[in-house]
Amino acid sequence: MNIGQPKRILVVDDEPDIREYLKSALVDAGFLVDVAADGQEALETVWRDPPDLISLDLVMPRHSGIKFYQAIQKDKAFSRIPVLVVTGHARDDLGRADFEEMMMSGPGVYLEKPVHPDTYVAAVCRLLGIESQGPPETQAEDLRRELSRALSGADRDAMQRALDALRKKER
Predict the structure, then answer these.
(1) Which of 22, 52, 62, 118 has the most CB atoms around it within 10 Å of its CB?
(2) How would you label 126-156 residue by residue, b for 16+ Cβ within 10 Å and e otherwise?
(3) Which domain holds residue 171?
(4) 40 & 94 share domain
């Protein structure tokens, strides 16, 4: 991957292990990384030194991800910063309302935890317009995950068409 001039990413997550995990993936890929434990700390970081991209958890104490996102959208200078939502609560009662609001009014780009480091870095690169290619085995695993997500909500006919298409490819 060629990121040229190092880009700064702000990782916002209330879980220290996840912050470090995501930070390590980004540092290994050549990014500069700041971290914040909640939306309030993230706001202070953005005001002090705006990052090139924000990786944002939604469900956090003190100041949630949605409140943080709404706050930065009020300032034209900060509203242009790309945001990648990384959450484990997209479909549960704890985070579903915030997630739906965020996707309706917000960036529309998200990853569900647990996230593979290569998938995470690739999403960051896409949002920043940086070319990134993970190893072929990781690309295949990403495709399997995406296919599995798509099939989990598909009806019987759609699944049959997908299976038929795969069988046709094998011949």
Answers:
(1) 22
(2) ebbebebebeeebeeebeeeeeeeeeeeeee
(3) 135-171
(4) yes
